[in-house]
Amino acid sequence: MKQGLILLLFIFVVLATRAQMSREQYIQRYQLLAIEEMGRSGIPASIKMAQAVLESGNGNSQLSRNSNNHFGIKCKSNWRGQRVYHDDDEKDECFRKYKSVEESYIDHTNFLMGNPRYAFLFTLPPNDYKGWAKGLKDAGYATARHYDKSLIKIIEDHQLYLLDQKQTIRPLLANSKGPSLNKGISDKMIINPFNSQKKVTINNLDAVVARKGDTYEIMAQSLGIEAWELYNFNDQDAGYRPQPNEVVYIEQKHRRASKNQEFHTVSEGETMHFISQMYGLKLNPLYRRNRMKPGEQPQTGEVVYLRKRKPAN
């Protein structure tokens, strides 16, 4: 009898921890992710949210719970991340696995932006969720016959078109008005979604050029590395956001410059970090080489030593 009670208690605990999330709860939890990704890509937040709730079963599917895959994206030949296997159209198909839900949302954006068959979607007005829904179906995102109609129904039933105006959805929102024209988002894309970051080489180091809207997290996802590595490679604190056209190193910088670059004469406004990025040098060794404390800045016209230690006064 006692063993039976223990078994029932165990089953109750398991069921409680696996409680189903409602669609409203899912939208409330992840709507800001959809809005943020819309800001950097032009993919309507309503579409991203509708796809997420449909593909993940409101975050309750096995794939989303165990692998943080909320968009049903399969591995494909270019995927270098973790993998899991589930039965879908065929048995034991390969699906992408993520460390967080946020990574799934970011990769969904990158997946659409990087695939030429979805290119035409980015020419649509940013509030045309019906055009996006039909386009996703026509481009073969899913095999369901009424995939576009399912997305549109979710959007209109839950007024997700408000997300396209950067308005969050409130619980039990009752609004009889239909979707309005989105005046808060330009008809022009902030970034060209089909161009990956431009690659450059500095001091025999690989680097990329940041675009408007990029973050280290977004760039790391597209490059297949960890965000903390970009912060480390570029001597930046967590939370730093690169500026458009800023060089971002994707490997560890050197301790000293090449042989033909012994010194640097400081121009107005240049900082030690700026100089370290210009020559692909680690910042702290550069400080020590010039007998400076971290955070100190050079004077205009001062000579900064790039290879040898600065002579003591």
Helix content: 25-40%
CATH domain fold name of the largest domain: Lysozyme
Largest sheet: 3 strands, antiparallel
Q: What order do the SSEs take from the amino end to the carboxyl end, as H and E?
A: HHHHEEHHHEEHHEEHHE
User: How many H/I helices?
Assistant: 11
Q: Find the structural class using helix and strand composition.
A: mainly alpha
- Give the strand content: 5-15%
Please tell me how large the radius of gyration is. 25 Å
Protein model, in words:
Helix content is 37%, strand content 9%. It has 313 residues and is mainly α. The protein folds into three domains: 2-69 and 100-165, Lysozyme, CATH 1.10.530.10; 198-249, LysM domain (Membrane-bound Lytic Murein Transglycosylase D, Chain A); 263-305, Membrane-bound Lytic Murein Transglycosylase D, Chain A. The strands form three sheets. The protein has a three-stranded antiparallel β-sheet, covered by helices on one side. A hairpin with a 2-residue loop joins strand 3 and strand 4 (205-209).
Topology summary:
Elements: H1 2-17, H2 23-41, H3 45-56, H4 62-67, E1 82-86, E2 93-97, H5 101-113, H6 129-138, H7 147-157, E3 198-202, E4 205-209, H8 216-223, H9 227-233, E5 247-249, E6 263-265, H10 272-279, H11 283-289, E7 303-305
Antiparallel strand pairs: 1-2, 3-4, 4-5, 6-7
Helix pairs in contact: 2-3, 2-5, 3-7, 6-7, 8-9
Question: Any descriptors?
Answer:
single chain; 313 residues; mainly alpha; Lysozyme; Membrane-bound Lytic Murein Transglycosylase D, Chain A; three-stranded antiparallel β-sheet; two-stranded antiparallel sheet; 11 helices; 37% helix; elongated
